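Box 3.1 A note on notation
Throughout this textbook, protein chains are presented in two layers. The first layer is the amino acid sequence; the second is a token string describing backbone geometry. Keep the layers aligned when reading.
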Amino acid sequence: MKQRQILTVFMAAALGMATLPPALAITDDYLIIPGQSIGQTHLGSNGAFYLKKLPEAAASDTSMQQTNLVWVS
């Protein structure tokens, strides 16, 4: 009787996993590499070049000698 219950639980779990959608492939477009890049936006000394390629920021905050820009996707 106990073996039958274990088999039933195992079969239900296997069936549930079989119906799940496949995992999404992680591409470089979404990869975050600390200190190097966030997706296709690279960090570093050439920041002005990459800022020109981005669309207009969703929000900005300008304070003393610093501007913070926020993009939402």
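The helical segments are 2-18, 47-53. The chain is about 35% helix and 20% strand.
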